[in-house]
Amino acid sequence: MERISNILNNKVFKEYLKRNEIAEKERVFCKHNLNHSIDVARIAYILNLENKWGYDKELIYAAALMHDITKWRQYEEGVPHHISAAEIADSILASCKFNDNEIEICKNAIMKHRKLEDENDSFASLLYKADKLSRLCFLCEAKDICNWSQEKMNEKLVY
């Protein structure tokens, strides 16, 4: 997975991961760090294999790594992170040798990972589901003050 290694070593990607970490240092809710993104990628890949959807592993990992990368901008500037992450995905993914079609697929999924409007959009649906399944709400100490709806909360370990 050479292109995924390229993302992980990308200067901007690393800087934004650090900015997320700093912005969420005192956060009591779920974090938007590399561990979360890797969990999303692995769960999405498992779903992909189980359902025989046939998505490329690097495409799944790329979308998962990029989906929350600009969460810090939401805190600092009020820019919704799904929008700013999709914007930065262009340059990072292009520099890591993803083609235009792959970049558009990733950007579409990133844009929809917060609110899925069409379950038939299977790649976006894959990222959305994996993102929600990655959260261990049943163990969270901040569950009672979380703004997630009961329907969104992950109450059991599935993957």
Structural class: mainly alpha
Give start-end ranges of low-pLDDT stretches: none
- CATH fold group: Hypothetical protein af1432
Beta-strand level of the residues, as a percent range?
A: under 5%
Radius of gyration: 15 Å
Number of beta strands: 0
User: Termini, distance in Å?
Assistant: 22 Å
CATH superfamily: Hypothetical protein af1432
Number of helices: 8
Fraction of residues in H or I helices? 55-70%
Total tally of structural domains? 1
Principal-axis shape equals globular
Characterize the quaternary organization of these chains.
single chain
Largest sheet: none
The CATH architecture can be named as Orthogonal Bundle
SSE string: HHHHHHHH
Mean pLDDT comes to: 93
Regarding CATH, which class? Mainly Alpha
Q: What would you note in describing this structure?
A:
With 159 residues, the chain is mainly α. The chain has one domain (2-145): Hypothetical protein af1432 (Orthogonal Bundle). It has eight helices and no strands. The chain has helices spanning 2-8, 11-23, 34-51, 57-66, 71-77, 81-95, 100-112, 122-133. The longest helix has 18 residues, at 34-51.
Quick overview of this protein structure:
The protein has helices spanning 2-8, 11-23, 34-51, 57-66, 71-77, 81-95, 100-112, 122-133. The protein has 159 residues and is mainly alpha-helical. It has a single domain, classed as Hypothetical protein af1432, CATH 1.10.3210.
Keywords:
159 residues, mainly alpha, Hypothetical protein af1432, globular
Tell me the layout of helices and strands.
Blueprint: H1 2-8, H2 11-23, H3 34-51, H4 57-66, H5 71-77, H6 81-95, H7 100-112, H8 122-133
